[in-house]
From TrEMBL:
SUPFAM superfamilies, per the entry: Spectrin repeat
Source organism: Dreissena polymorpha
Protein name as it appears in the record: Dystrophin
Superkingdom of source: Eukaryota
Length: 65
């Protein structure tokens, strides 16, 4: 997961650099795409965290039976 965070960070850095060099009409599209990417990434992180917590919680229960 941490390796993927580096990829997302790189994409944000590159996207921000492209926006600095782009004409105004392209800025909104690029900004929207980066915001969408970041929102999806946060959602994935939250889903994985919840799955991890469920797994950690359920492992001790497995050995009770």
């Amino acid at each position: 997961m941490q390796g993927m965070q580096g990829t997302v960070d790189s994409m944000n850095n590159i996207g921000n650099e492209i926006m600095r060099q782009s004409a105004a009409p392209n800025l909104n599209t690029m900004k929207e795409k980066l915001e969408s990417l970041n929102a999806r990434w946060k959602s994935i992180e939250m889903d994985l965290q919840q799955s991890h917590e469920k797994l950690v919680y359920s492992l001790p229960l497995r050995y009770k039976f």
